[in-house]
Protein backbone atom coordinates (compact mmCIF):
# COMPACT_ATOMS: atom_id res chain seq x y z
CA UNK A 1 0.00 0.00 0.00
CA UNK A 2 1.35 3.47 -0.86
CA UNK A 3 1.77 5.80 2.08
CA UNK A 4 -0.74 8.65 2.31
CA UNK A 5 0.80 12.13 2.33
CA UNK A 6 0.85 13.75 5.75
CA UNK A 7 -0.35 17.34 6.12
CA UNK A 8 -0.06 19.68 9.10
CA UNK A 9 -2.84 22.17 9.92
CA UNK A 10 -1.27 25.18 11.60
CA UNK A 11 -4.10 27.18 13.20
CA UNK A 12 -6.73 25.88 15.57
CA UNK A 13 -9.63 27.70 13.89
CA UNK A 14 -8.90 25.61 10.77
CA UNK A 15 -9.59 22.41 12.75
CA UNK A 16 -12.89 21.72 10.91
CA UNK A 17 -10.83 21.14 7.74
CA UNK A 18 -9.62 17.87 9.27
CA UNK A 19 -12.89 16.14 8.43
CA UNK A 20 -12.44 16.91 4.73
CA UNK A 21 -8.77 15.97 4.62
CA UNK A 22 -8.73 12.73 6.59
CA UNK A 23 -10.09 10.66 3.68
CA UNK A 24 -6.93 11.24 1.67
CA UNK A 25 -4.24 12.46 4.07
CA UNK A 26 -2.74 11.78 7.46
CA UNK A 27 -3.65 14.95 9.31
CA UNK A 28 -1.56 16.52 12.08
CA UNK A 29 -2.65 19.55 14.11
CA UNK A 30 0.05 21.95 15.25
CA UNK A 31 -1.76 23.00 18.43
CA UNK A 32 -1.76 19.40 19.63
CA UNK A 33 2.02 19.64 19.90
CA UNK A 34 4.85 20.22 17.41
CA UNK A 35 5.01 17.19 15.09
CA UNK A 36 8.46 16.04 16.19
CA UNK A 37 7.83 12.33 15.48
CA UNK A 38 6.08 13.03 12.19
CA UNK A 39 8.41 15.80 11.00
CA UNK A 40 9.91 13.56 8.36
CA UNK A 41 6.50 12.64 6.89
CA UNK A 42 4.89 16.04 6.61
CA UNK A 43 4.54 17.08 2.98
CA UNK A 44 2.18 20.07 3.14
CA UNK A 45 1.32 22.85 5.60
CA UNK A 46 -2.23 24.17 5.70
CA UNK A 47 -2.30 27.73 6.96
CA UNK A 48 -4.43 30.84 7.37
CA UNK A 49 -2.52 33.53 5.49
CA UNK A 50 -2.89 36.32 8.04
CA UNK A 51 -0.69 34.55 10.62
CA UNK A 52 3.08 34.68 10.39
CA UNK A 53 4.43 31.35 9.27
CA UNK A 54 7.48 30.36 11.30
CA UNK A 55 10.43 29.78 8.98
CA UNK A 56 12.29 27.69 11.54
CA UNK A 57 9.38 25.23 11.53
CA UNK A 58 9.60 24.94 7.75
CA UNK A 59 13.31 24.24 8.08
CA UNK A 60 12.56 21.36 10.46
CA UNK A 61 10.33 19.57 7.93
CA UNK A 62 12.72 17.96 5.43
CA UNK A 63 10.07 16.60 3.05
CA UNK A 64 7.77 19.59 3.01
CA UNK A 65 6.81 20.38 -0.59
CA UNK A 66 3.76 22.70 -0.42
CA UNK A 67 2.39 25.62 1.60
CA UNK A 68 -1.37 25.53 1.04
CA UNK A 69 -2.96 28.72 2.26
CA UNK A 70 -6.68 28.39 2.98
CA UNK A 71 -7.31 32.13 2.66
CA UNK A 72 -7.16 34.77 -0.08
CA UNK A 73 -4.50 36.82 1.73
CA UNK A 74 -1.05 35.28 2.25
CA UNK A 75 0.71 38.19 3.99
CA UNK A 76 2.00 35.93 6.80
CA UNK A 77 4.04 33.88 4.36
CA UNK A 78 7.37 34.94 2.93
CA UNK A 79 6.60 33.71 -0.58
CA UNK A 80 10.01 34.66 -2.01
CA UNK A 81 11.79 32.80 0.77
CA UNK A 82 9.61 29.73 0.16
CA UNK A 83 10.15 29.93 -3.58
CA UNK A 84 13.91 30.08 -3.10
CA UNK A 85 13.59 26.73 -1.29
CA UNK A 86 11.47 25.24 -4.07
CA UNK A 87 8.32 25.44 -1.96
CA UNK A 88 5.24 26.55 -3.91
CA UNK A 89 2.51 28.51 -2.13
CA UNK A 90 -1.18 28.31 -3.05
CA UNK A 91 -4.06 30.50 -1.85
CA UNK A 92 -7.79 31.10 -2.44
CA UNK A 93 -8.25 34.05 -4.78
CA UNK A 94 -11.59 35.22 -6.17
CA UNK A 95 -13.81 33.33 -3.74
CA UNK A 96 -14.72 35.52 -0.76
CA UNK A 97 -14.48 39.00 -2.31
CA UNK A 98 -18.23 39.53 -2.85
CA UNK A 99 -18.85 38.74 0.83
CA UNK A 100 -16.04 41.04 1.93
CA UNK A 101 -17.50 43.81 -0.25
CA UNK A 102 -20.93 43.26 1.34
CA UNK A 103 -19.24 43.53 4.71
CA UNK A 104 -17.49 46.78 3.75
CA UNK A 105 -20.82 48.27 2.69
CA UNK A 106 -22.35 46.98 5.93
CA UNK A 107 -19.61 48.70 7.92
CA UNK A 108 -20.16 51.94 6.01
CA UNK A 109 -23.90 51.80 6.65
CA UNK A 110 -23.37 50.89 10.31
CA UNK A 111 -21.01 53.82 10.81
CA UNK A 112 -22.55 56.52 8.65
CA UNK A 113 -26.20 55.75 9.50
CA UNK A 114 -25.31 55.03 13.15
CA UNK A 115 -26.88 51.58 13.04
CA UNK A 116 -24.55 50.02 15.60
CA UNK A 117 -24.71 53.07 17.85
CA UNK A 118 -28.51 53.28 17.50
CA UNK A 119 -28.82 49.67 18.59
CA UNK A 120 -26.68 50.37 21.68
CA UNK A 121 -28.62 53.54 22.50
CA UNK A 122 -32.03 51.87 22.24
CA UNK A 123 -30.99 48.87 24.34
CA UNK A 124 -29.60 51.21 27.01
CA UNK A 125 -32.97 52.98 27.23
CA UNK A 126 -31.60 56.08 25.55
CA UNK A 127 -34.37 56.55 22.94
CA UNK A 128 -36.30 59.64 23.91
CA UNK A 129 -39.03 61.41 21.97
CA UNK A 130 -37.39 64.77 22.58
CA UNK A 131 -34.43 64.17 20.26
CA UNK A 132 -33.63 62.22 17.13
CA UNK A 133 -30.17 61.58 15.69
CA UNK A 134 -29.60 62.92 12.21
CA UNK A 135 -27.19 60.84 10.15
CA UNK A 136 -25.39 61.23 6.81
CA UNK A 137 -26.80 60.22 3.43
CA UNK A 138 -24.56 57.84 1.53
CA UNK A 139 -25.86 58.95 -1.83
CA UNK A 140 -23.41 61.50 -3.23
CA UNK A 141 -20.59 60.60 -0.83
CA UNK A 142 -17.12 60.38 -2.37
CA UNK A 143 -15.82 56.86 -1.90
CA UNK A 144 -12.09 56.24 -2.30
CA UNK A 145 -10.84 52.68 -2.71
CA UNK A 146 -7.23 51.72 -1.98
CA UNK A 147 -6.46 48.72 -4.19
CA UNK A 148 -8.82 47.86 -7.02
CA UNK A 149 -8.53 44.07 -6.91
CA UNK A 150 -11.34 41.56 -6.42
CA UNK A 151 -12.62 43.24 -3.23
CA UNK A 152 -12.02 46.81 -4.39
CA UNK A 153 -13.97 46.26 -7.61
CA UNK A 154 -16.82 44.53 -5.80
CA UNK A 155 -17.06 47.49 -3.39
CA UNK A 156 -16.99 49.92 -6.32
CA UNK A 157 -19.85 48.12 -8.10
CA UNK A 158 -21.98 48.27 -4.97
CA UNK A 159 -21.14 51.93 -4.36
CA UNK A 160 -22.19 52.80 -7.94
CA UNK A 161 -25.64 51.35 -7.31
CA UNK A 162 -25.83 53.35 -4.08
CA UNK A 163 -25.04 56.51 -6.06
CA UNK A 164 -21.72 57.20 -4.42
CA UNK A 165 -18.90 58.73 -6.45
CA UNK A 166 -16.07 56.24 -6.72
CA UNK A 167 -12.38 56.83 -7.31
CA UNK A 168 -9.46 54.58 -6.51
CA UNK A 169 -5.74 54.43 -6.14
CA UNK A 170 -3.23 51.60 -6.54
CA UNK A 171 0.37 51.34 -7.65
CA UNK A 172 -0.53 50.13 -11.14
CA UNK A 173 -2.85 51.72 -13.70
CA UNK A 174 -5.56 49.35 -14.89
CA UNK A 175 -8.48 49.30 -17.23
CA UNK A 176 -11.39 50.26 -14.95
CA UNK A 177 -14.67 52.17 -15.06
CA UNK A 178 -13.63 54.39 -12.17
CA UNK A 179 -10.98 57.14 -12.23
CA UNK A 180 -7.62 56.54 -10.57
CA UNK A 181 -6.06 59.38 -8.61
CA UNK A 182 -2.38 60.30 -9.02
CA UNK A 183 -1.53 59.61 -5.39
CA UNK A 184 -2.97 58.03 -2.27
CA UNK A 185 -2.97 61.43 -0.56
CA UNK A 186 -5.06 62.87 -3.43
CA UNK A 187 -7.51 60.01 -2.96
CA UNK A 188 -7.77 60.55 0.81
CA UNK A 189 -8.12 64.33 0.44
CA UNK A 190 -10.94 63.93 -2.09
CA UNK A 191 -12.86 61.20 -0.23
CA UNK A 192 -15.57 61.18 2.41
CA UNK A 193 -15.03 57.46 2.89
CA UNK A 194 -11.76 55.60 2.32
CA UNK A 195 -11.95 51.81 1.95
CA UNK A 196 -8.71 49.85 2.30
CA UNK A 197 -8.98 46.78 0.06
CA UNK A 198 -5.44 46.07 -1.12
CA UNK A 199 -3.01 43.24 -0.61
CA UNK A 200 -0.66 43.57 2.37
CA UNK A 201 3.04 42.93 2.06
CA UNK A 202 6.32 44.14 3.50
CA UNK A 203 6.37 47.14 1.13
CA UNK A 204 3.05 48.65 2.18
CA UNK A 205 3.08 48.21 5.98
CA UNK A 206 1.57 51.40 7.47
CA UNK A 207 0.43 52.60 4.03
CA UNK A 208 -2.48 54.38 5.68
CA UNK A 209 -0.17 56.65 7.61
CA UNK A 210 -0.81 59.62 9.90
CA UNK A 211 -0.52 61.81 6.79
CA UNK A 212 -3.23 59.86 4.93
CA UNK A 213 -5.46 59.96 8.01
CA UNK A 214 -4.96 63.72 8.26
CA UNK A 215 -5.88 64.06 4.58
CA UNK A 216 -9.11 62.09 5.10
CA UNK A 217 -9.92 64.50 7.87
CA UNK A 218 -12.43 65.22 10.65
CA UNK A 219 -15.49 64.18 8.68
CA UNK A 220 -13.83 61.26 6.90
CA UNK A 221 -14.59 57.60 7.55
CA UNK A 222 -11.80 55.01 7.29
CA UNK A 223 -12.92 51.46 6.46
CA UNK A 224 -10.45 48.56 6.55
CA UNK A 225 -11.45 45.12 5.28
CA UNK A 226 -7.98 44.10 4.04
CA UNK A 227 -5.29 43.73 6.71
CA UNK A 228 -4.52 45.60 9.94
CA UNK A 229 -0.84 46.04 9.15
CA UNK A 230 -1.77 48.36 6.26
CA UNK A 231 -2.94 50.99 8.72
CA UNK A 232 -1.04 52.93 11.38
CA UNK A 233 -3.57 51.89 14.02
CA UNK A 234 -2.06 54.02 16.81
CA UNK A 235 -2.37 57.07 14.55
CA UNK A 236 -6.01 56.17 13.78
CA UNK A 237 -6.86 55.89 17.49
CA UNK A 238 -5.11 59.18 18.31
CA UNK A 239 -6.87 60.97 15.43
CA UNK A 240 -10.29 59.60 16.43
CA UNK A 241 -9.78 60.66 20.03
CA UNK A 242 -8.99 64.25 19.19
CA UNK A 243 -11.42 64.60 16.29
CA UNK A 244 -8.92 64.74 13.42
CA UNK A 245 -10.57 61.65 11.90
CA UNK A 246 -14.35 61.39 11.70
CA UNK A 247 -14.77 57.64 12.14
CA UNK A 248 -13.35 54.18 11.58
CA UNK A 249 -15.05 50.94 10.64
CA UNK A 250 -12.61 48.07 10.94
CA UNK A 251 -12.76 44.33 10.32
CA UNK A 252 -9.01 43.77 10.62
CA UNK A 253 -6.46 44.87 13.20
CA UNK A 254 -2.77 45.30 13.86
CA UNK A 255 -2.92 42.42 16.37
CA UNK A 256 -5.61 39.77 16.07
CA UNK A 257 -7.57 39.25 18.21
CA UNK A 258 -7.35 42.93 19.07
CA UNK A 259 -7.58 43.77 22.80
CA UNK A 260 -11.08 45.01 23.67
CA UNK A 261 -9.49 47.46 26.12
CA UNK A 262 -7.63 49.15 23.27
CA UNK A 263 -10.95 50.45 21.89
CA UNK A 264 -12.54 51.66 25.12
CA UNK A 265 -13.23 55.38 24.83
CA UNK A 266 -12.29 55.51 21.14
CA UNK A 267 -15.26 57.33 19.59
CA UNK A 268 -17.06 56.78 16.28
CA UNK A 269 -15.90 53.24 15.65
CA UNK A 270 -17.62 50.13 14.36
CA UNK A 271 -15.54 46.99 14.85
CA UNK A 272 -15.98 43.41 13.65
CA UNK A 273 -13.73 40.40 14.42
CA UNK A 274 -12.26 39.69 10.95
CA UNK A 275 -15.49 38.20 9.64
CA UNK A 276 -15.62 40.01 6.29
CA UNK A 277 -15.05 36.89 4.21
CA UNK A 278 -16.38 34.37 6.70
CA UNK A 279 -19.56 33.05 5.12
CA UNK A 280 -20.53 29.41 4.72
CA UNK A 281 -20.52 29.85 0.96
CA UNK A 282 -17.08 31.47 0.78
CA UNK A 283 -15.59 28.90 3.15
CA UNK A 284 -16.93 26.11 0.91
CA UNK A 285 -15.28 27.73 -2.11
CA UNK A 286 -12.00 28.11 -0.23
CA UNK A 287 -12.15 24.47 0.90
CA UNK A 288 -12.72 23.37 -2.68
CA UNK A 289 -9.62 25.26 -3.85
CA UNK A 290 -7.55 23.87 -0.98
CA UNK A 291 -8.51 20.29 -1.83
CA UNK A 292 -7.91 20.86 -5.54
CA UNK A 293 -4.48 22.35 -4.89
CA UNK A 294 -3.48 19.49 -2.60
CA UNK A 295 -4.61 16.78 -4.96
CA UNK A 296 -2.99 18.48 -7.99
CA UNK A 297 0.26 18.81 -6.05
CA UNK A 298 0.38 15.18 -4.97
CA UNK A 299 -0.58 14.02 -8.47
CA UNK A 300 2.25 16.11 -9.95
CA UNK A 301 -0.22 18.22 -11.89
CA UNK A 302 -0.25 22.04 -12.24
CA UNK A 303 -1.50 23.78 -9.09
CA UNK A 304 -5.00 25.24 -9.34
CA UNK A 305 -4.30 28.60 -7.69
CA UNK A 306 -0.62 29.21 -6.97
CA UNK A 307 0.40 32.61 -5.62
CA UNK A 308 1.11 34.32 -8.90
CA UNK A 309 3.92 36.78 -8.18
N1 LIG B 1 -11.57 40.89 5.87
C1 LIG B 1 -11.51 39.69 5.31
O1 LIG B 1 -12.11 38.75 5.80
C2 LIG B 1 -10.69 39.49 4.06
C3 LIG B 1 -11.12 38.52 3.15
C4 LIG B 1 -10.39 38.36 1.97
C5 LIG B 1 -9.24 39.09 1.73
N2 LIG B 1 -8.84 40.00 2.65
C6 LIG B 1 -7.63 40.80 2.41
O2 LIG B 1 -7.89 41.65 1.31
C7 LIG B 1 -6.78 41.61 0.40
C8 LIG B 1 -7.27 41.92 -0.99
O3 LIG B 1 -8.12 40.87 -1.42
P1 LIG B 1 -8.51 40.73 -2.96
O4 LIG B 1 -9.29 39.46 -3.07
O5 LIG B 1 -9.13 41.98 -3.47
O6 LIG B 1 -7.06 40.54 -3.62
P2 LIG B 1 -6.59 40.91 -5.08
O7 LIG B 1 -5.26 40.26 -5.25
O8 LIG B 1 -7.66 40.63 -6.07
O9 LIG B 1 -6.39 42.50 -5.03
C9 LIG B 1 -5.34 43.12 -4.37
C10 LIG B 1 -5.16 44.47 -4.99
O10 LIG B 1 -4.23 45.20 -4.20
C11 LIG B 1 -3.47 45.99 -5.08
N3 LIG B 1 -2.26 46.42 -4.42
C12 LIG B 1 -1.11 45.74 -4.21
N4 LIG B 1 -0.23 46.52 -3.54
C13 LIG B 1 -0.85 47.71 -3.34
C14 LIG B 1 -0.47 48.92 -2.72
N5 LIG B 1 0.74 49.06 -2.18
N6 LIG B 1 -1.35 49.93 -2.69
C15 LIG B 1 -2.58 49.80 -3.22
N7 LIG B 1 -3.00 48.68 -3.83
C16 LIG B 1 -2.14 47.65 -3.88
C17 LIG B 1 -3.22 45.08 -6.27
O11 LIG B 1 -2.86 45.84 -7.42
C18 LIG B 1 -4.58 44.41 -6.42
O12 LIG B 1 -5.42 45.16 -7.29
C19 LIG B 1 -6.20 40.20 0.58
O13 LIG B 1 -4.84 40.17 0.21
C20 LIG B 1 -6.41 39.94 2.05
O14 LIG B 1 -5.29 40.39 2.77
C21 LIG B 1 -9.54 40.23 3.80
O1 LIG C 1 -7.63 36.52 3.41
C1 LIG C 1 -8.73 36.02 3.66
O2 LIG C 1 -9.31 35.21 2.90
C2 LIG C 1 -9.44 36.41 4.94
O3 LIG C 1 -8.88 37.56 5.47
C3 LIG C 1 -9.38 35.34 5.96
O4 LIG C 1 -8.05 35.19 6.34
TrEMBL record:
Its EC number is 1.1.1.29. The keyword Hydrolase does not apply. Coiled coil: none annotated. Residues 36-307 form the D-isomer specific 2-hydroxyacid dehydrogenase catalytic domain. Residues 105-276 form the D-isomer specific 2-hydroxyacid dehydrogenase NAD-binding domain. Keywords: NAD, NADP, Oxidoreductase. Gene3D superfamilies: NAD(P)-binding Rossmann-like Domain. InterPro entries: D-isomer_2-hydroxyacid_DH, D-isomer_2_OHA_DH_cat_dom, D-isomer_DH_NAD-bd, NAD(P)-bd_dom_sf. One of its GO terms (cellular component) is cytosol. GO terms for molecular function: glyoxylate reductase (NADPH) activity; hydroxypyruvate reductase (NADH) activity; NAD binding. It comes from the Bacteria. It holds the Pfam family 2-Hacid_dh_C. Belongs to the D-isomer specific 2-hydroxyacid dehydrogenase family. This is Glycerate dehydrogenase.
